[in-house]
Amino acid sequence: MLEDTVKKILQARVYEAARETPITPAPFLSRRLNNQVLIKREDLQPVFSFKIRGAYNRMAQLSDAQKAKGVIAASAGNHAQGLALAAKLMGVKAVIVMPRITPEIKVQAVRARGARVVLRGDAFSEALAHARELIEEHGYTYVPPFDDLDVIAGQGTVGMEILRQHAGRLDAIFVPVGGGGLIAGVAAYVKYLRPEIKVIGVEAEDSACLKAALEAGKRVTLKEVGVFAEGVAVAQIGEAPFAIMRDLVDEVITVNTDEMCAAVKDIFEDTRAVAETSGALSLAGLKKYVQQRGVEGQTLLCINSGANTNFDRLQHIAERTELGEQREAILAVTIPERPGSFKRFCKIIGRRMVTEFNYRYADPDQAHIFVGVQVKPGGEDREEVIRKLREADYPVEDLTDNELAKLHIRHLGGGRPRQRFDEQVYRFEFPERPGALMNFLTHLPADWNISLFHYRNHGAAYGRVLVGMQIPDGDRGHVEEHFDEIGYRYWKESDNVAYRLFMA
Length: 504
Ligand SMILES: Cc1ncc(COP(=O)(O)O)c(C=O)c1O
Known about the structure:
The chain is an alpha/beta fold. The chain has three domains: 2-50 and 148-315, Rossmann fold (3-Layer(aba) Sandwich), CATH 3.40.50; 52-142, Rossmann fold (3-Layer(aba) Sandwich); 326-502, Biosynthetic Threonine Deaminase, domain 3 (3-Layer(aba) Sandwich). It has 20 helices and 18 strands. The protein has helices spanning 2-11, 27-33, 51-60, 64-69, 78-90, 104-112, 124-138, 149-165, 181-193, 209-216, 239-245, 257-271, 277-293, 314-324, 341-349, 380-391, 403-412, 436-443, 479-486, 497-502, and strands at residues 23-25, 36-41, 71-74, 94-98, 116-119, 141-142, 172-176, 198-204, 251-255, 299-304, 328-336, 354-361, 366-374, 396-398, 424-431, 449-456, 462-470, 489-492. The protein has an eight-stranded antiparallel β-sheet, with helices on both faces. A six-stranded mixed β-sheet has the order 1-2-10-7-8-9, with helices on both faces. Strands 5-4-3-6 form a four-stranded parallel β-sheet, with helices on both faces. It is elongated and about 90 Å long. It starts with a helix and ends with a helix. Bound molecules: pyridoxal-5'-phosphate. Pyridoxal-5'-phosphate binds next to helix 5, helix 9 and helix 13.
């Protein structure tokens, strides 16, 4: 069977539609990980993912009669775009059935490649059922996303290119796994020619259907799948891919959402390309492999398998990268509500970079602080911050692994104090450097009480900060003189309608 698959890969027709993508070295990551890291750039395909390879090769096998009737698939993802382009290049009609909830951007991308889009049902299974009805009615040929020998052979050309382009030492290839088409093709080719190279599958931990199948010794269907990496959100590994690769894959690594987000950032830093989360999946696995095994001096290759991400998702991805690298700790700290206690708290945090700060007066006795601080990867530094805070008698909750806190509470912190009090509110621009906050606090008179503080690191040169203060009567006339002395730009916001409505 291995030899048959390799023959099919060697004969696959992909280059009328796909390009041979380069392997790019990743110098930053290589230095950080003490291994040579290489990235196969499937994000550079005309449809921004490798999926064009399998779709085109499958279509190239169709008879003239089948071509005349047209092709169909149920997919809201990269397969839909690959098939649409393949059909357009061959002058064949393509119909893509998508669930009604599919984001408009994906519908448009498929239409732009000339395919007809049919929106049907709320879930993928309903879209698939409707595709079957249309096949009955019109005689279209179904082109599956992964469970097909010609699709696997098309994807296997990725493996063929890797060995041709990189003839030297190669210790392991990390491959993202959804339904298994890509890894089956890559594993077959690579193991046939260079069995010493490890082929390691990488799955999102909440859609790890290959890992489950290998453990059970047969294909199993996951009860639920997470959709954060939608390209690989598959409940059951494909039958044909599993049969080909089950004895070829050396191991499977699973990674979580934050680790995938961190890998999106790593790819960006080394190549300036923005991968989708599935596209960065195999790099997240590579990093975990290095971390867990402590390997050094090896040559490791991952595949950036796609770059079809919605622009507005990037904010969320960026927010979670620090967590993915265990470089951010999220803490809830309760401090006494009196002048100077905020400053004392900041002293304990020290010169660590603060990524987020939410502080709101709660009652005359105490205030809750929601804070994100940069810590050294590995967790020990986080424990040290927590220990120091506890030693200073501040109650601390570690929220670093709390999904509710990371997704929602960080945006909802604050609110109105429980009783009326006199508060002056100013907005500042702080230069984004360690110590800027301490400098600010040091310049404020000791008897001014901070009653509100909100800061968010936007990755820009200046941080935006909102501060509420209780200022003693005698100082009221000189507030801005103090601020002028500090030298940061500021705006008075006490009369801002948004503050009045939601915070005052
Ligand atoms: C970007 C990306 N990476 C990886 C995969 C997984 O490929 P396969 O389903 O062949 O395992 C997909 C599948 O659509 C994908 O779109």
